[in-house]
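Practice problem: predict the structure.
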Amino acid sequence: MKKLSKIVALLLAGAMAMVMLTACSGGGNTGSMKEDTKTEAEVLSKYSTSTASVDNNKELKAVFLAINTFLAIEQKERLRMQSS
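Answer:
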């Protein structure tokens, strides 16, 4: 059992060394940096919310205030029932 654990540890150490040495070969990316920057700018411009205009919707605001008022009344009622 002790010999088996040593063999497994040695195999794992060898596998980790192989992964470390093969992961940084430095010869995989053939695309230019300019293309990557262009693609990144396109994606960011598509999903960016900083340039989008956001208007307050009066109907949603009224619904929010109604729900908020209802919840406040319900909470006061619960507190009143607990103190009774």
